[in-house]
Amino acid sequence: MAKPNVDDLVKSIAEETNTPTDVVSKLYAETWAQFSEGAQIMDYLTVLTVRRVRENLRNGRPGSH
Question: Does 1 reside within a domain?
Fold first, then answer.
């Protein structure tokens, strides 16, 4: 399975949520770091990270994970 391009994911989330890409990029990196810490299986980490960032931005909680 091909790994998604993070820049494309960030751009998509930014457009969808009307949020600047630098904000989305920072949230993505923070969320990825939180989820990947100690993770042994990384297969779905991208999906979970994208989902959490979208949820946080939609709910007006850009700083919460």
Answer: no
pTM of the model: 0.84
All residue ranges of the chain with pLDDT < 70 are 1-3, 61-65
CA distance 46 to 10: 11
All residues at 6 or more sequence positions from 42 whose CB lies less than 8 Å from its CB, including other chains: 36
Residue 45 resides in a domain = yes
What is the number of helices (H) and of strands (E) in the chain? Answer: 3, 0
Please write down the long-range contacts of 7-15, taking CB distance under 8 Å and 24 or more positions apart.
Answer: 9/46, 9/50, 13/50, 13/53, 13/54, 13/57
Cα dihedral value 48, 17, 5, 1, nearest 10: 40
